[in-house]
Amino acid sequence: QVQLVESGGGLVQAGGSLRLSCVASKTISSINSMGWYRQAPGKQRELVAVIFNVGITTTTKYADSVKGRFTISRDNGKNTVYLQMNSLKPEDTAVYYCNFQKPLPLTNYWGQGTQVTVSS
User: What does the pLDDT read at residue 108?
Assistant: First the structure.
């Protein structure tokens, strides 16, 4: 069974940076997209950033609230996706989850989550 393991969360002051990593325990064939989601207390899980293939083109998409501050990247050879978070704000405080998705059949793999806390 494939496991996704996140790391890099922690406590940081507003304006600071963190880099999250998510590595799969083994290679997953036909992964089309890798992404990061977050869930703050009392709120629904929301998409933060995703990196995916459209044909041979790699595309990224970000939530409006993180555009210009967060960068998603991946290393396919290492089965790893990263999220570089800069200029962090208290409202970025949440549990961050990574997600790998296969299109056919549609299969989602989730990490266990890593806490990010931004103090003001």
Answer: 94
